[in-house]
Amino acid sequence: MYHRGRRRGTGPSLTPSPPGHGPGSPEAPILTPVEPQPPPQPAVTAWLAAAGVPFRVLEHAPVRTSAEAAAVRGTPLEAGAKALVVRADNRPVHIVLPADRRIDNARLRALLGTRRLRFVTPDELLTLTGCAPGAVPPFGNLFGLEVLVDEELTRGTEIAFNAGSRAVSITMRCADFIRLAGARIARFAQS
């Protein structure tokens, strides 16, 4: 089902800051947590609906790998947006790459201007995003994080991603994702 400009469910308990504030594009406000923090999926769908972009929500059995996610979504593996959070020195950075690719560590370190790079721990990820590993949506700007998107992902017409849960996926046009993500696009993935 496509949604355009309307809210589903009870809505998020996350409050957006005014457009044009914080990192990212003016169209991608930062959402700040209000206690208690809800699952991110309702906030993501409400934010996409408010932005007026078409998207589909798919509820499915929980998935553990990108290949499993592509299979249950019925989408090509390369259309999957794999969202990860790393620490470059001590700063968290949200990176998004095609699900069929892996990180080129040397290239990513060079882009981020650091020699020290590591994935955040599951506890750090939960603190930063409210999500478990494998459930993070590709909009790091919603969490106030710097966002890098691999250029290969931007070449498709549609992307698919987990939306705060390993049992909920969203598919949307890639052009809308790029516009809303407030990301720097660069090459940092390899086959």
Explained architecture:
- The protein is α+β, with helices and mostly antiparallel strands and 191 residues long.
- The chain has one domain (57-190): YbaK protein (Alpha-Beta Complex), CATH 3.90.960.10.
- It has helices at 40-50, 66-73, 105-112, 122-129, 174-181; strands spanning 14-16, 31-33, 55-59, 81-88, 91-98, 102-103, 117-119, 146-150, 158-165, 168-173, 184-186, 189-190.
- It has a 5-stranded mixed beta sheet. Strands 3-10-9 form a 3-stranded antiparallel beta sheet, with helices on both faces. Strands 1-2 form a two-stranded antiparallel ribbon.
- A hairpin with a 2-residue loop joins strand 9 (158-165) and strand 10 (168-173).
Radius of gyration, in Å, reads 15 Å
The CATH C-level class name: Alpha Beta
- Indicate the CATH topology: YbaK protein
> Strand tally, please?
12
Estimate nothing, just give the exact number of structural domains: 1
Question: Spatial order of the strands in the main sheet?
Answer: 7-4-5-8-11
Q: Percent range for helical residues?
A: 10-25%
Strand percentage lies at 25-35%
Q: Report the CATH architecture.
A: Alpha-Beta Complex
Mean pLDDT across all amino acids: 84
What's the total helix number? 5
